[in-house]
Amino acid sequence: MAQTASERIRLSEFARTPYLNVLTYPVLDLKVARSRLEQLEDLGVEEVVFEGRTKIGRLGLVGIGTVSVVVRGIIGGRLHALKIRRADANRESMLEEYRLTEIANRIGVGAQAFAATQDFMVMQLVEGKDLEEHLRAIRGVGTRARVREILHLLLNQCRKLDLIDLDHGQLSDLRKHVIMAGDMPYIIDFESSSQRRAPKNVTTASQYLLIGGRCAPFVKRLLGIKNQEPVLEALKAYKKDRSDGNYARLLKTIGIVI
Prior knowledge:
alpha+beta, 3-stranded antiparallel beta sheet, 12 strands, elongated
């Protein structure tokens, strides 16, 4: 899909068409728009920038999810990601996602969360490719070493989440929930995260990468994995006991740590 032309508006223009379609997506609602403009003023949003391959009408966005749409917002003269709660979201507020993202941030995981209200969350703007696109674009000398390092960084972030009992909940599709900024993976979208269920971050991400994800055949080939039974056994052992030893065994089995 082609990139849309960038369009930049003052905050006061956000409640006008066609921008209103984004502010209260997917239902036009002037009453809701007024409340949301007040929240954006409280957050210090000065301008909104519509740019990206995802579209609502002619307007480009960073992305659209089941809970929110994401645009670029300017606060203090700097670009941020601005998550806007969808009018039809199954969440009443962005505050719980903000709380859980802050917890992840404390252990060095996720894009930085800066502030939130009922309908918005202001975050670090991380721009780059999705994980699969990035991995497939790696070429030349050192390809295997680079892929190993990226997967090691990603699984270590998943391990950190496991250790604090925070389950992301959506890592069965890393293509949608990991953004690559260069060779650094960022886990995003903690909207479905929970501290009330057993964490499965390492096992879910590993299954996507090596067992069932679209990039699994490619990743296994690069890592030299010809038999996935030892991988399944290592995942089973880690799921039963999330010890340091079982995590190290998993990394060694999949060829990330030699």
